[in-house]
Amino acid sequence: MTAHENIPADDAQAVLDDLNEFRQSIDNIDAALIHLLAERFKCTQKVGKLKAEHGLPASDPGREARQIQRLRALAEGAHLDPAFAEKWFNFVVAEVIHHHVKLATPATAPAPAPALAAATPAAAAAPTPASGPTPGDRRATVALPAHTAVAPVHPNPVHSDPAHPNPAPATPAGAARPKPSPTRPSA
Ligand SMILES: C=C(O[C@@H]1C=C(C(=O)O)C=C[C@H]1O)C(=O)O
Q1: N or C: which end of the chain has fewer CB within 10 A?
Q2: Where in this protein does the record put region Disordered (predicted)?
């Protein structure tokens, strides 16, 4: 059943026109939010590097408390649920702090290749590096609204630091990964 089956035929086109117009605006707003988030993460990465260089703590709870008060007041003025504004902020800040902790953590030797790890009993028995939460990782503690189907995300899709590129996303078992054809260049 399509969404417009219950609408009288003479109204259906007008309703669909309205729906499409609203959805275009939604798509524009979503695009703007992604760009704004990317800019925010560029700034917070700079803050993270500064903190790492000067041995400052990854998080600043006092600053966050002031930001939350400000955002809640802004939300009220904008007729947005202040509790939602606070949850959104906590979600973003948890990711920022995770980045800051990583920036402050000295890089370790790369993990051995899986074949080598399996062939070496000691290596096979050793816990996987970086498998658990790092100190200061608060992402798991951020409670999202029940309808927000967003798991704590790592790596961050808007992470834009070329020094810390995102690894390739995991491919689910059995899923076909498209392979670029070396012989047929795309048009
Ligand atoms: C960006 C900073 O680091 C953390 C992240 C914040 C944020 O994303 O707004 C705020 C405070 C800090 O916990 C900062 O200290 O300014």
Answers
A1: C
A2: 124-187
